[in-house]
Automatic annotation (TrEMBL), chain A:
Highest taxon of source: Bacteria
Protein name: DUF1795 domain-containing protein
Organism: Asanoa iriomotensis
TrEMBL record, chain B:
InterPro entries: PrsW
Pfam families, per database record: PrsW-protease (PF13367)
Keyword flag Cell inner membrane: no
UniProt name for this protein: RsiW-degrading membrane proteinase PrsW (M82 family)
Length: 187, 468
């Protein structure tokens, strides 16, 4: 059982072509993606997160465009203030604030090593949205979470970083979370 | 003495039969075989890790997703098997095509899609990435990754890709593998996004949405279109390379264009009823277009193989009516139903076996060389001569009738005659069915009505489940 030399060479060329295209898609595109910066200035004005929710980012914050996805009914905005990651997620939700809070807590504790710490207390934004706020921790990281209910959406906010970085950025982040608004007004 | 004629070059035929000398073991000597094996192994590891992690987090939901989408693949496989009735593809190659789609193309696409989404967000804006990212990443990365699978099949087993229809079969199986694994990933992600733990409702909603409302005109269909072009490139060697490459590129671009239209916000009505608008505007027209294309290439292949049987001119092998019926799936099924009505289960079984034997004989006749030789006696038990192994055409004269096919053709000719004998004994001598245009129209209208009803039920179920 033999294969003609010409057939073998054509097959080898075709195989290399397939392999190169696979490598281009699976490794070339991600390499190109990594070569371009993912962050850009977030701006000073209200940022449309999605689902009708806006937030004014902390001064000097940068936006991670690879994780930020605005939409009509849902959206995500990921800001970076120094090394602290400040995330606002809007999803369609028809439950109560307590249910939205329980869901966010499950998401946080679902990540290995993360646990809720301390007590929760109510918060209120400048536009009149009522919510709950709490803290969480992971090895080497501290976190703050907030959850709001407005219209048909739940707004989940998390801010996490090393303890010193978070405590330094917290005043600006708290000022930012107070600017969260649904459809430009109250719930 | 038998005179062996040189094999006539049949380059203009729509089918290039697998040569008798083709041996599956030869694939092991080809670099492409080892490249495909390596990529499938790598993809399998990646998908297995995903399934393992999903089981750890959501065991019930993951199991349900695997079962539902596994079952979902069954009717597609039955449809592809019906397409592939006459010249069946080796099961191992079909499995390879499915594995490429499910393991390799999905693994490539997960990385490639994420990169394209990010690039759109970086070079334009996150808003554009959110709205158009899927429309740009899906068609480019996924269609190329799937088309590579069809090219890989051609490289590994060129002799098995005999017609444009074979390209359609391999392409649709690559697409089906992709669709099943992608849907499982989507279902598990839906459970994670819902954030309510190991719940099955998101899996069912994903199954209804991606399986039914968006599934019939999804990857299986795109793969079939790309496969037709790549099959054309591989088979139609009577055309210039430029024409063949152009057709292949256009077919892949066509698959990309349909995929782009489906993923894009273009022509979308939005809102709860928007999915039905998408279905009629963006789903059904491409589905009908590609089904018509597949019908055309299937008829061309069927005509070729029926020509092989007709060349024998032997009514014991196949009557004119049987040749009309054998090339079309619904007519074959009609002949079996008719046999059941006349002679019960035994007659239906006999017709099924006769049809299978006729199809195999047609394929074997196409594979063998044509020789001239003395026509054997009409006695079916007559053994072929050692020097002219094959099936003789029933000639007008006693001598110089062509001998078609080889030893396999003799075996299947004998099988056909045995099955014919069984049918004669059952009093149902012919595997055919009376022509009934009314029945066809009723069946088509009934099918459309059932389809529309099913879509409405699925849509209402989705609304009830609160899918968004």
């Amino acid at each position: 059982m033999r294969v003609a030399r010409g057939t073998l060479l054509r097959n080898l060329a075709g195989s290399i072509g397939v392999l190169c295209t696979v490598a281009g898609l699976a490794f070339g595109l991600p390499a190109l993606d990594r070569a371009l910066p993912a962050q850009r200035p977030a701006g000073d004005g209200p940022y449309p997160v999605g689902g009708g929710v806006t937030v004014t980012p902390p001064p000097g914050a940068r936006l991670d465009v690879t994780l930020t996805r605005p939409g009509d009914t849902r959206g995500t905005a990921v800001f970076l203030t120094g090394t602290v990651r400040y995330v606002v997620v809007v999803t369609p939700f028809d439950g109560s604030l307590a249910e939205a809070n329980a869901r966010l807590r499950r998401k946080i504790t679902g990540v290995r090593g993360h646990e809720i710490t301390g007590k929760e207390f109510p918060v209120r934004t400048a536009s009149g949205l009522n919510g709950l706020q709490g803290t969480y921790a992971a090895p080497g990281r501290a976190g703050r979470y907030l959850v709001f209910r407005a219209g048909g959406v739940a707004i989940e906010v998390t801010a996490a970083g090393s303890a010193p970085a978070l405590s330094g950025a917290l005043p600006a982040i708290e000022a930012s979370t107070r600017t969260i608004a649904y459809r430009g007004g109250t719930a | 003495m038998t005179q062996t004629l040189p094999t006539a070059p049949r380059r203009r035929e729509p089918v290039h039969p697998t040569p008798e000398w083709a041996h599956p073991g030869k694939s092991l000597l080809l670099p492409a075989f080892w490249v495909v094996l390596m990529l499938i192994a790598g993809g399998a590891v990646r998908v297995a890790l995903f399934v393992r992690d999903s089981f750890a987090a959501y065991p019930t939901a993951t199991l349900l997703a695997l079962v539902l989408f596994g079952l979902y693949a069954v009717p597609f496989c039955v449809f592809v098997a019906a397409l592939d009735y006459l010249e069946r593809e080796p099961p191992l190659l079909l499995a390879t095509a499915f594995a490429w789609g499910g393991l390799v193309a999905t693994s490539i696409s997960i990385r490639g899609n994420a990169a394209v989404h990010n690039l759109v967000a970086k070079l334009a804006s996150p808003g554009l990435a959110a709205e158009w990212g899927s429309a740009l990443a899906g068609p480019t990365v996924e269609e190329i990754a799937k088309a590579l699978g069809i090219v890989a099949i051609v490289l590994v087993a060129r002799a098995q890709v005999n017609s444009v229809l074979d390209g359609v079969v391999y392409g649709s199986l690559v697409g089906l593998g992709f669709q099943v694994v992608e849907d499982v990933v989507y279902a598990v992600n839906a459970v994670a996004v819902a954030g309510r733990g190991d719940q099955v409702a998101p899996v069912i909603a994903t199954f209804l949405l991606r399986g039914f409302l968006a599934g019939l005109w999804s990857h299986t269909l795109f793969g079939a279109l790309a496969g037709a072009g790549i099959g054309y490139l591989a088979v139609r060697t009577d055309r210039s390379l430029l024409v063949r490459v152009t057709v292949a590129v256009l077919s892949v671009l066509g698959a990309m264009a349909i995929h782009f239209l489906w993923n894009s916000p273009l022509l979308s009505l939005g809102g709860g009823a928007g999915i039905f608008g998408d279905l009629f505007v963006k789903g059904i027209p491409p589905l009908l277009m590609i089904l018509l294309l597949v019908r055309g290439v299937r008829h061309r292949e069927a005509d070729y193989y029926m020509g092989q049987l007709a060349a024998l001119g032997d009514r014991r092998i196949a009557t004119e009516d049987e040749l009309r019926v054998l090339g079309h799936g619904h007519l074959r099924a009609g002949a079996r139903r008719y046999a059941y009505g006349r002679g019960g289960v035994k007659a239906r079984r006999a017709v099924r076996r006769l049809q299978r034997a006729q199809a195999r004989l047609a394929v074997e006749l196409s594979r063998g060389v044509v020789r001239s030789g003395p026509a054997p006696a009409p006695d079916p038990a007559a053994a072929p001569t050692a020097s002219a192994v094959g099936v003789a055409r029933v000639a007008d004269g006693p001598t110089c009738a062509p001998i078609l096919g080889g030893s396999h053709a003799v075996r299947w000719r004998d099988r056909v005659l045995v099955e014919r004998g069984r049918m004669l004994a059952l009093g149902h001598p012919e595997a055919t069915a009376p022509l009934s245009h009314n029945g066809s129209i009723r069946r088509i209208l009934g099918g459309i009505a059932v389809f529309l009803a099913a879509m409405i039920v699925v849509g209402l179920s989705l609304i009830a489940l609160g899918a968004s």
